[in-house]
Amino acid sequence: MKYGHRLVIDTILYVLVSGCAWRLAPHDLAPWDAAYRWFRAWSAAGVWDDIHDALRERVRQGEGRDPAPSAGVLDSQSAKSASGGEQIGYDAGKRVRGRKRHLLVDTLGLLLICVVHSASIQDRAGAKLVLSWLDQQYPSIGLIWVDGGYANVVDDSLIDWADHELGVRLEVVKRSDDLKGFQILPRRWVVERTLGWLTRCRRLCRDYERTIAHAEDFIKIAMIRLMAARLAGQQIRYHNIRPDTT
Fold it and tell me: Residue 138: CB partners within 8 Å, gap ≥ 6?
């Protein structure tokens, strides 16, 4: 390898956090084409998945948790697409043309399963794409919290499907109709916080990737960055720079 792994990873993280195009990476980092080539190679080889899963287990153990989670929280986020590519659609509810990120996280907010698909796919159908991986990857999970968009009095077929096909109980956390404005909902805030962590990386504020695989891998890289800092005893802080008014 002509350029060291550290330099290549620093370049990939720069693109992730800054949101710049690959070709605009600074010259004191690895050349953009070399960094992009290694990013693609590691994506194809499943390297990001291996690193992510290993770090998540260490973070869970450090928090005194079992490496295998028993519960999770599910939610989705629609992101505007900056260009064409695979599975671009229109989310009529959010009025967004792009893709939808479907995340299953544990009770610490750490990513378990990530599926990116067209924004036109409804939440119930998208949830099945996520939950279909449970038997293979996380058979220990028996309870998942979801919001009212996945099951309601009109259609609760997803709850029955998860119970009969997967042996998993979906528990709906509903928003109270009596309260107005912002409110923190039990359990649901965990996955919403994770979505907030992701959008701190400007590359994830919109969907810039042409392939679904790369869109999913950038989400995992963002979580790798977060977990690596946590294991190193550091905090990733974001400061608002304001002009001196004195």
Answer: 68, 69, 72, 112, 113
DSSP helix, strand, coil percent of the chain (3-state; round to 5): 40, 15, 40
Return d(Cα 125, Cα 128) in angstroms, integer.
Answer: 5
Give the Cα separation of 212 and 86 in Å (integer). 6
Alpha helices of the chain — where are they, by DSSP H?
Answer: 5-18, 32-45, 47-62, 123-131, 134-137, 157-161, 188-198, 212-231
Compute the CA torsion angle 39, 15, 210, 147 (nearest 10 deg): 100
Across 104-113, 145-154, 190-199, least confident range: 145-154
pLDDT tens digits for range 12-71: 999 999 999 999 999 999 999 999 999 999 999 999 999 999 999 999 999 999 999 999
- What is d(CA 16, CA 12) in angstroms, rounded to the nearest whole number? 6
Mapped onto helix, strand or coil, the DSSP state of residue 116 is strand
pTM of the full predicted structure? 0.89
CA 187/CA 74 separation, integer angstroms = 10
